[in-house]
Amino acid sequence: MIYDYHVHTNHSFDSRAVMSDVCAEAVERGLQEICFTEHYAVNPVLPTYGHLDFTQYLAEIERCKQQYEGKLIIKAGIELCEPHYMQTQYEEALAHQPLDFILGSVHNMNERKLRLFLAQEGIDHYELYFREVLHMVQHADIDIIAHLDLLKRYAVGNIGNYKLSDYEDVIEAILQTAITRHIGIEINTSGWRGGAGEPFPSREVLQLYCQMGGELLTIGSDSHFVEHTGAEISDAIQLAKECGFKAIYTYNQRQPQAVALDKYYFDKK
Ligand SMILES: [Zn+2]
Ligand SMILES: [Zn+2]
């Protein structure tokens, strides 16, 4: 059993992948389940705003479910930008959408992209970024924190990577709040493909979460291209095992269900 719980298609503003092509690739790669997680924002100043049409998105998922019945389990998810702001608008927008899974993301700081945020001088970027993630996990209605230390993707060619020991207080607060609120974290494999050279979050953060009693964990490629569907998922499963996790989770109508990690096998093609 292998799955991918972070996948974009052309229902996201920054992807041109066609959903049925992604499903075909998933089957080809031996995945049994896939969860689409398109970008969505209610804030009109963000680039994500206004792209996703729920009716079209959910209809295409239904068509793919029929087309791939018996071959691939397909879930309807979403990735929200800064869902701790404009919460009433998010609630209204999502109230009647039959979503299986919600990722919460900090993609912007003060409504500006992370690259621009990093150009600001005289501030501790990582501290502020993690404080923003903490704010999100304290307030937002989400299932999983997406790419918890995403800032390092943009920081590696700039201010560099961070040391857990320098930000342990705020990262522990994020993880403790997540555990208390039944929110999980993901292993986002896109970090391996980019300059960071390691997943989001790092092995050390994953180990800390596991030591603190965190259990809710998903794995996703964050693919925006057909050929990245399921990328490095088996490496992430291996990493989860090494960090001490016993299971990863699937979501159905936002209810988590554990799948024991020893049930996962690798059929690398
Ligand atoms: Zn994201
Ligand atoms: Zn994403």
UniProtKB/TrEMBL annotation:
Source organism: Paenibacillus kyungheensis
Catalytic activity: L-histidinol phosphate + H2O = L-histidinol + phosphate
Annotated metabolic or biological route of this protein: Amino-acid biosynthesis; L-histidine biosynthesis; L-histidine from 5-phospho-alpha-D-ribose 1-diphosphate: step 8/9
Keyword NAD in record: no
One cellular-component annotation, GO: cytoplasm
GO molecular function: histidinol-phosphatase activity
Domain PHP: start-end pairs: 4-190
Protein name: Histidinol-phosphatase
